[in-house]
User: Fold this.
Amino acid sequence: MRIAGAKVRHFFHPTKKIVVYLCFSFKKTPIFVPKSIETMKKLLLITLSVLAVLMSCKQEKTSADADGTTTLQFTSSTYERILRYEVPSDDAEGASDLSPLYSMATLRLMLPTSIGGEEPTDLLHAVIKTFFSDSVSTTLSDATERYLSRPLGMEEGSYINLCVVDSAESDYMQLSDHSADIHVKTMTTRWMVLECDAYEYFAGAAHPMTGSFYLNYDLQNNRLLTLDDIVTDRDHLALLLSQIYTQQRSGEPPYGYSTTVAADGTFDIPVTDNFFLTSGGLSFVYQPYEIASYAEGIQTIRISFFELLDADILTSQFKETDF
Assistant:
């Protein structure tokens, strides 16, 4: 059924259900006056039917809230901007090279604007700090503008004649490119994982850089989850990660650059706070060059809750929660 004048917003939960929000918009129309008693009866019957449907919807929502369901609302946006700028380069004779350079930025956002009827301020601040690497902006709109309005890798004051253009009239040697795709990776009734897939290419560089970054959010208590909320002993965790990764890479010939591999082929893996929750455990994500070569790409080490329980390094608080 299609409802005229209705705006429909929905979010699909991968394991639970689809929640649909309807926001009605009404336009001013001439008042209709029924011409007979029979018509008035029909209108009254229709009105009562509509009221009954609306009341049942309200009761269903109230029941869901009582059962601990958290209502979330999301916003989705895409931005793209190309900047043209010049960098003064004085030589010994005082001349300046003002060849035009370009920087293209693409930003895709799918973020919660409301969790349980309240703005997730702490989560959005963490998004700004962790995903945007921005310690200055205090709002998402400010962080978005800073991301789009500064040439990649350039500090304020190091460039001149900055302007926005429709296209880059240049080859790749003068074009820098960066993008960030921030979205929900996974979600259950208890927690949500936000993921940021980032890409950067500096003009003239040998290759681009990629990275994946994560934030974990407790939907029941409306707070960020850190590694220290889950694990009690980081040293023991590092030992487990090293053992798992050594087994994961066993049988492979030495490949590329790595500062974490010993002569006997064992790995010494540091603990990273860049992790995400899964239904069965934790996944720790390392960017290129952190524990392996660029050619080997992003590395992920998965450790199950059973392994963490067996090592007795899960926090008592996390043991008591139904994650």
